[in-house]
């Protein structure tokens, strides 16, 4: 189980979901990938390092250990596209974000179903259990889904992506006051930003974000250029570059948590 997902429990209402930092490849998956696929280049690199500042919030962290090329934990398990009519990658990706093939042997329907049971379910069982635990302790949970991506991917979006991309499923995944507080804090930072732009929140945000049931979910997609020395191999974390990003994220999360606490108190 620890080779699929690790859970670090904290006492606060904040849960950090990290579905894409893993680079692990089970042997049967590795054998089916081509040379490009084995680079696992669409990884959300260094999420633990980026969010090291979040220790001040005492969060629970649910972190995937396997590559998204095994199965994408932030896609609808039914296979339905999150962004109909737009380029994206599948539950089990067939290409990189850039559109390059990654398999010598494409996974068939039976293999995808096997991966859903063996690799997808454990992460979501762990995340569900932590949401339930945090809700039982505090009466509510704030789920912050942590992502990163290259800032230029013509296949997925035009031009250069803003550094900070906050997604709330167009306002459906958290209380309006929480989105407003996070957006205001983000606008006060020295980084380009957008709310519900190209990335409105993946399956995790959409599935678990149920404000009526006291679970508030927000996705933050960050440009890799905000914390890597370069957006290419070896994808080296650069602490000096990352400092502004980390300070900004800290302020945004703090604002979201304060707003969530106020919102939940007003409902009690």
Can you put this structure into words, describing what you see?
With 268 residues, the protein is an alpha/beta fold. 32% of the residues lie in helices and 15% in strands. It contains 6 helices and 7 strands; from the N terminus they run E-E-H-H-E-H-E-E-H-E-H-E-H. The protein has a 7-stranded mixed sheet, with helices on both faces. Strand 5 (164-167), helix 4 (176-187) and strand 6 (193-195) form a beta-alpha-beta unit. Helix 4 (176-187) runs antiparallel to helix 6 (239-267). The longest helix is centred in the middle third of the chain and has 30 residues, at 109-138. It starts with a strand and ends with a helix.
Q: What is the structure about, briefly put?
A:
This protein has six helices and seven strands.
Which structural traits does this protein have?
6 helices; 7 strands; 268 residues; alpha/beta; seven-stranded mixed β-sheet; globular
Radius of gyration: 18 Å
Percent helix: 25-40%
Total helix count?
A: 6
Write down the overall geometry: globular
* SSE succession: EEHHEHEEHEHEH
Q: In what range is the share of β-strand residues? A: 5-15%
Residue runs with pLDDT of under 50 for 5 or more positions: none
Largest sheet: 7 strands, mixed
In round numbers, the mean pLDDT is: 96
The span between the termini is 38 Å
Class derived from helix and strand content? alpha/beta
Query: How many beta-strand runs?
Result: 7
Spatial strand sequence of the major β-sheet: 1-3-2-4-7-5-6
